[in-house]
Amino acid sequence: STTARGGVVRRFPADFLWGSATAAFQIEGAAWEDGRADSIWDAFARVPGAVVGGDDGSVATDHYHRYAADVELMAELGLGAYRFSTSWARICPDGGAPNRAGLDFYSRLVDALLEAGITPWLTLYHWDLPQTLEEQGGWTNRDVAQLFVDYALATHEALGDRVRHWTTLNEPWCSAFLGYAGGQHAPGRRDDSAALAALHHLLLAHGLGITALRERDADASLGITLNHSHFWPADPDSAADLDAVRRMDALQNRLFLDPIFRGSYPADALVDLADVWPDVVRDGDLATIAAPIDVLGVNYYTASVVTADGVRGGVSLGDVPSDVEDGGSGDAAAHTVRSPWVGARDVRVVDTAAARTAMDWEVHPDALRDLLVRIDTEYARPAGTALVVTENGAAYDDEPDSDGLVDDVERRDYVAAHLAAVHEAIQTGADVRGYFLWSLLDNFEWAFGYSKRFGIVRVDYDTLRRTPKGSALWYSSVARSGELGVDGAR
Ligand code: GBH
């Protein structure tokens, strides 16, 4: 089994955080209630073929109305922390003035969490930009970075007395490259220069946000969450394959880590992207982006063997299954997508024998250990920044029995193997403080709609009933004991 690692019981540090994660658009529903306006994901879901099955976020898991029960469920599972995001379009519906009713929802949620003894970890931006701001150019417009600060401060003013852990952005790689270069995500654009402008303005929003929050609240723990991956060369003796690894690593990891921790974009990436790099970087921006952070959130799902050697072939990176490409609608005029890998569209993924999840992502737990150790050593530790795994988890084709119960052994094994990897990273000396399992609930999996289930709790989309899966009960005992048993057992 993937979880048998040395036949030992792994004990995590006593203060290690055990949590689960969600995001506003993926679970809340109540899309136009209490003053919430369209976000770019509401608009994108209306584009024919953009989302599998034409699914949208209007109801989602109805968490907006069921938050109290969901908090109770987390408490029953013994989870000590909860990572959620606030919806910009609920708090500042037109991108400007704050909406009291929107803030009140999060205030109720935070109170319920604290009452249940669960520590709130709040992310300000998990991809749901107010649609009015998209109409002003979205993240290609520098002004949006400043509007993000206004939104962050309005949210902090309402919740800062109770929320002590603040994350600016979730995975700006996805916002910039899937949103503006590949078109898989909202706003669905396919313009490489726009993607790089978005990337810079997202990082600027992060830096300005950290600076403003720090000024208001010197003791808060502040950070950002990035999605990282690891790449191996198909042939370690091939210069082309090694260069493919270098370019992929730059796009996925260093394009974010370098400006945040070192105040500069990686020189090799600037050379690779010279033809499409927009003129958006102003004096002082990189110093702003490099504002010190307390926590780096690491999201990790998969790793890949890559090649840029035409002979070896492989699958084009960023390709999505054909049922996503036309949204399963068979509509010829449907939304189309292309590889999000600007400057690396020639790079191909080579399949390995590794197991795969329902997303078709290969399972490589050791890459998480190596990434955590690398990021800790090269970036975070020298800056005095702690690491937290803010997302890790897997979609599988769950099969409920006649009572609606799901015995998701594969998901349990996936999480156990990755927790073992986190434990190994800690033993190697990496400063990893916690783990948030993605996700608490089955939810709206972006372009895949409700067709992919990441939850440790099953959601019946007809009744909206929640039923903990086997993985939830197992994770609960790991979280309560702080121990991972042999073979992932407890
Ligand atoms: C996260 O993104 C999100 O934060 C979360 O909202 C989401 O529900 C969850 O993960 C599950 O998807 O095929 O070459 O593009 C994950 C970001 C980007 C990770 C694409 C895997 C696959 C490599 N993902 N990546 S490629």
Key traits:
490 residues, alpha/beta, four-stranded mixed beta sheet, binds ligand GBH, beta-glucosidase
How would you describe this structure to a colleague?
The chain has 490 residues and is an alpha/beta fold. 39% of the residues lie in helices and 15% in strands. It has 16 helices and 16 strands. It has an eight-stranded parallel barrel with strand order 2-3-4-5-6-8-12-13, surrounded by seven helices. Helix 3 runs parallel beside helix 5, helix 7 packs parallel to helix 9 and helix 14 runs parallel beside helix 15. The site of ligand GBH has 16 residues, from loops.
Ligands, ions, cofactors? ligand GBH
The chain-level mean pLDDT equals 95
Number of helices: 16
- Number of DSSP strand runs: 16
Family: Belongs to the glycosyl hydrolase 1 family.
Pfam families: Glyco_hydro_1
EC number: 3.2.1.21
GO molecular function, one term: beta-glucosidase activity
